[in-house]
Amino acid sequence: MLKDGSDSRAALWRTAAGQRGYFTAAQAVDAGYSYQAQRYHAQRGNWLVIDRALYRFREFSDLPDEGDEQLVRWSLWSKGRAVVSHTTALSAHDLGTANPARIHLTVPRGFRQKSDAVILHRAELTQPDIEDRMGYRVTAPPRAIAECAAAGEDQDILDAAVSEALERGTTSRRRLLHAAQLLGPRAELGVERALAASS
Predict the structure, then answer these.
(1) What predicted TM-score, i.e. pTM, was given to this entire model?
(2) Helix (H) or strand (E) holding 148
(3) pLDDT for 75-125, tens place per residue?
(4) Are 188 and 177 in contact (CB under 8 A)?
């Protein structure tokens, strides 16, 4: 049975509302919009074209920017398989001074997509490593800090992130050490130094 336009818009709006107004072409099809209808809405300016097969309702672009809208975009680009990680996760958690020039995403080993705008890390994350946000997922603070240590990020970035995470009660020394142990000696060394600096 064909949906009428208002049913399709309401269905797509419900999906997009949980993703900061973003939606994929596939989600639009599921809501009842043919590819021809999608082209029409994009050409008329009803939908903003963000990337190939990725749109945003124009109304959402007028809302105040919360700073992490682009992370929703990259989650949709990855078809929900990517998790925001490393220094981008620290930034999302507002921990320390990390300000990465490119988006860091952790993806499953078989992930094939590529973009110059992102740095992909391959790992199989478990649920305790991940926090759900509106429209995307991000590594939890202990994992994000340990990832940065394992990647050899500047010690000042680690020190600031660990100090703020402990001060806010976001994590504990024990959880940080455990997360670092899972990622190896380099991660352990960086986290141990940061913990010593925060004592």
Answers:
(1) 0.85
(2) helix 141-150
(3) 999 999 999 999 999 999 999 999 899 999 999 999 999 999 999 999 999
(4) yes
